[in-house]
Structures are given as structure tokens and as C-alpha cells.
Amino acid sequence: MRKYLARFILIVFITLVSLPALAQAKPAKTGGAAEDALPKPKFNISRFKGPIGKRYVLKNGMILLVKENHSLPMVTIGMIIRAGSVMEPYKKAGLAHLTAGLLTKGAAGMSAMDISGKIDFIGASLGVGGSTDYAAAHLTVLKKDLDTGFSLLSKVLIQPAFAQAEIDRMKKDIKAGILREEQSPGYVAQKAYQKMVFGGESPYGRPVEGTAASLDAITRNDIVAFHKDFYVPNNCIMAVVGDITPAEAKGLVDKYMAAWKQKKVPKPSIPAPPKTALRRKNINRDVTQATILMGHVGVARDNPDYYKLYVMNYILGGGGFVSRILNTIRDNMGLAYNAYSYFDARKYSGAYTVGMQTKNDTAVKAMTETLKIIKNMKAAPVSDKELSDAKNFIYGSFAQKMDTDSKMADLLAQVEFYGLGLNYFEVYYDGIHNVTKEDVLDVAKKYLHPDKMDIIVVGNLKAAGIK
């Protein structure tokens, strides 16, 4: 049986990998179109018509989003709490990350081991983590164990213990992680780059985990106060996806979170980033290849040009091997092992970043050629094929953003957080579909500033010929 199965798999494999070659070998029709290949994929917008979920504002101020999927007896809950590092004081950097990480380390009389044991016993998963814009909680559980799972989720969010021993242990772990990361050229480059682009006092300009010094400055009272200020229901978004109805979801919140009271939440204070200017920093490391980051302040997620920028950047450096940067720098010139670009669109303006790894002795040339590519992007329209290929890929990859209940729960919560609307799928499609070559050129001219990029190089500076 195994012999026949192996032969069948081999035949299928040979057939699949032969299809592209067969398509290319197909004789051209009269008229000479040598590109008579397979039809290009079409985006089926009918799948994504209408609202992506049901939205409710609960009595305690929490936003509840529900999407039913009764195909499996599972429920996934994704939560966003507006308690990211944008809410912490500069001198207490790492407070938001530390607070989020401690929530599952003891709550309501249970130890970290107790919580972990209860979650493992029902075969569920529960986690909480902190980032720059927000903290996120996630629960996946069988429908039959939903009460148990939701009860645990509510306890870690509302009644965390913040035991001093756990605080000390987590601080020690984070510091050890920072020391390990400092050995990575990529981490060193990213840390220096963020600080240069946004300024050291901005939450976007410092590591979300803080520093050893800032962690030492954080006390248990700081953690308790941060939790009291920001972990309140009217500061939360809960997305529930799976084998559940809106009535059941509301019932769970009423049952397990009735004592969670809303309150006024402090607003973040985000320092303005330094003005866009050509700044350079070179960091010497005894490594065989240089890590390079170049860029400047970009856009926020709610920028009206977001979809135009998405398409433009796919063509420039976000499309992997079909993007101009990687295709030219790696494939045509052999200057870099990897090269890319992206707009990190966050709640507030993130960064536009171009990155690459290259041999030390080709670092200067790789940077020079990359800047030329960016300048060319601002000089002339893209081709019809580049635009069409970008749209087709973006359409085709869209479904991957929501092919599991877990991804859908996270997506729902983010759509609410960034104010994208429950008709997000249609807006997304229209946003990509309506982009023209003129739009791509316009946003390239408006948002790309190759002459004013901050540049970080981490590498062997002597071998690179950089002073």
C-alpha cells in the first residue's frame, strides 16, 4: 500500500511542477502574443460582501464583535486593550510590556502553575502580551469548556496578583533577553534606527520591553497603578469567533465580567518625531555582513492614501522577488542577500523602512543603488504589468489573513481598533482595485524621501570602507 501511495504522490508532484513549463511551451496564437499563459487569478469579492461581524457596545463600555462559525465546536477570543507602551511614562519604559506579561503569572488566588494547569487540562490556549499600540489577550477553547476558559480569561484580566516574586523573575528574564538580543546585528540596527527616526522619548523610538535601567525603575506599585488605569472594560475590544451566538457571547461577559467597572482612561502623549533629515549612524561589529536600515517617518493606518501606498510599496520593495529593490539588488547585481521595504502603519505615524543584509565590502554600493531605485520610483509611472501583478498578489493573499478563526478574531479586533469599519473587506478591495499608475507615482513623490533618509549601518566598518 505504501509503495502505491508513494508512486501516486510522485506522479501528482511531477504533474504539478510541470504545469508552468507546459503553459510556457504552448504555441502562440496568430497575432504573436507570447504571453498566452494561464488566466490571471480573479478576486471573488462576493465572498466578502457585507459586514464582517456584528458589533455591540456593552453596558460597561466594552466593544464586542461576534462572528459565528459553527463548522467546528471551537471558540476563539481575541482582545485588544489600549494599554500599549504608548501609555507608559518614558522613564518607566517596559511597564506596559511587563504588566501584560504578568497577567497569566497569578490571579484570583491562583499561581502561574495553577492557571497553566487548568488551561492545559481543557486543551485550551491562553496568552497575553504587550506591544507599542496595545496589549492583546487571546483564548482558544472547545465549546464545551468555554465557561471554564472564559472564567480564567476574566480572572487574569481583572484580578491579577502581581506577586513580587513573579515581577522579579520576569524582569530577570527580560533583561537576559535584552542581553542576548544585543548580540544580534539586526536588533542593534533596529533599536538605533527607531531612536533616530522617532526620538528616544517616543514609544515608537524605544524597545517595547524597555531597558535594564528602566526596568529597575519600575515598582510593583507602578504595575498595579498601570493596570488600574488602563485595564478597564471601556478601554477594551473583544472579538469572539466560532461556535457561538451573540447572545451567548454577551451572556459570558455579563456572567464573568459584571464586576468590571468602566472609568475614565488617560490619553497618550506622543512626542513629535524629529524633522525628516539625512542622519547617519555607523555601529562597528566584527561580523561578515552588514545590516542596513534606511528610512523616515511614514504614515498612520488611517491615512487615506494607505491602499495606494500598499500597492506602491509592493512594487518597490514589499513584493519579495518581484519587487524592484530585491530583483535589482540581489538578482541582477548580486549585492545583497536580502532587501525589502515596508510602511509600518500604526495607530500613529509609523516608519517607512528599507532594509538589507549584504557583505561588508558591498555595503556602500548596495545603499547607493537602493537609493537610486527609490528615486526612480518617484520619477516615472510603473508599468501596467507591475501594477496588475501587484494587485493580483494582494487580492490572492487577502484570504490568508482570515483563513482560521484565530486570525479572524485578531483581524476583527484590529479593524475596530484602527477604525476601519465593519465593511472592511469591501473597502479593502475597492482601495486596491481603484489604484492607478498615476496614484502610485503620486504617493511615491509625496511619501518617499530618499535624500532625507536616516541610515543605520551595523557591520565591520573597516571592511566596508565606512568611517
Secondary structure layout:
Layout (H helix, E strand, L loop, with lengths): L1 H24 L28 E4 L5 E6 L5 E8 L13 H8 L3 E2 L2 E2 H10 L3 E6 L4 E8 L3 H13 L5 H18 L3 H14 L13 H5 L3 H11 L5 E7 L3 H11 L23 E5 L4 E9 L8 H13 L5 H9 L5 E6 L7 E9 L3 H15 L6 H15 L6 H13 L6 H10 L3 H11 L6 E6 L1 H4 L3
Parallel strand pairs: 2-8, 9-13
Antiparallel strand pairs: 1-2, 3-7, 3-8, 4-5, 6-7, 10-12, 10-13, 11-12
Could you please describe the fold and organization of this structure?
This protein has 2 domains: 51-256, Metalloenzyme, LuxS/M16 peptidase-like (Cytochrome Bc1 Complex, Chain A, domain 1); 280-464, Metalloenzyme, LuxS/M16 peptidase-like (Cytochrome Bc1 Complex, Chain A, domain 1). 44% of the residues lie in helices and 17% in strands. It has helices at 2-25, 95-102, 112-121, 146-158, 164-181, 185-198, 212-216, 220-230, 246-256, 306-318, 324-332, 363-377, 384-398, 405-417, 424-433, 437-447, 461-464; strands spanning 54-57, 63-68, 74-81, 106-107, 110-111, 125-130, 135-142, 236-242, 280-284, 289-297, 338-343, 351-359, 454-459. The protein has a 6-stranded mixed sheet with strand order 1-2-8-3-7-6, sandwiched between helices. Strands 9-13-10-12-11 form a 5-stranded mixed sheet, with helices on both faces. Strands 4-5 form a two-stranded antiparallel ribbon. Helix 2 packs across helix 8 and helix 10 crosses helix 13 (384-398). The longest helix has 24 residues, at 2-25. The termini are far apart.
